[in-house]
Design the sequence.
């Protein structure tokens, strides 16, 4: 019986190298982001998180098409040669995280209503994740510098495009989604008009609690 590794969640790194271990953790960022966003979407069930998720899925499909068309191999001698995805141009991880970073950055700056210090913290964290992911893919020999740069640039362009595209057509998208039977069944709603959705939900829960006491 032959055994193989599920490379989707496996990151190989240089042995006895603490920095490589850290870089391996950064390489898991797309998986962590996907699980976190899926959890957020399930809990909130709002159109914003759904649109964000659709954009990430389309971005993922796009990068696979790019790899098949370009067919540029990964760096020789690195663990990327044994990767589930054969080609290296562009970096899927970098394009994914770059899309995520740009879409979320625009949302924080232009959409989210919070203090300047909170915005600064989130923006700093996003940039750390993006930078760490890019460095990790080169350091662990999964990609060349050029493959990483192309991934970042394409992901950033797609992230910005998706943000403004969905912003311009958000009224029609929300009407289409919210008027569906599926939206009613799964309690999908639009929270974009609220200044603080968390505070709003908290106030409703507390009023309901006080009313039933």
Sequence:
């Amino acid at each position: 019986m032959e055994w193989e590794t599920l490379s989707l969640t496996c990151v190989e790194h240089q042995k006895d190298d603490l920095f490589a271990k850290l870089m391996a953790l950064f390489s898991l960022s797309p998986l962590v982001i996907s699980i976190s966003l899926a959890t957020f979407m399930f809990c909130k069930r709002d159109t914003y998180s759904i649109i964000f998720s659709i954009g990430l899925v389309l971005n993922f499909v796009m990068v696979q098409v790019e790899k098949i068309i370009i067919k540029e191999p990964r760096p020789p001698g690195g663990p990327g040669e044994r990767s589930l995805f054969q080609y290296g141009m562009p970096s899927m991880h970098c394009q994914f995280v770059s899309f995520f970073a740009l879409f979320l950055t625009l949302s924080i700056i232009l959409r989210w209503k919070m203090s300047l210090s909170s915005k600064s913290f989130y923006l700093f964290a996003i940039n750390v994740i993006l930078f760490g992911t890019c460095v990790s893919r080169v350091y662990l020999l999964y990609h060349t510098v050029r493959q990483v740069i192309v991934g970042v640039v394409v992901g950033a362009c797609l992230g910005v495009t998706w943000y403004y595209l969905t912003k311009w057509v958000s009224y029609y998208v929300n009407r289409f989604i919210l008027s569906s039977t599926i939206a009613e069944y799964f309690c999908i709603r639009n929270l974009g008009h609220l200044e603080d959705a968390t505070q709003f939900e908290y106030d409703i829960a507390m009023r309901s609690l006080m009313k039933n006491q």
About this structure: The radius of gyration is 20 Å. The mean pLDDT is 82. The CA atoms of residues 161 and 189 lie 24 Å apart.
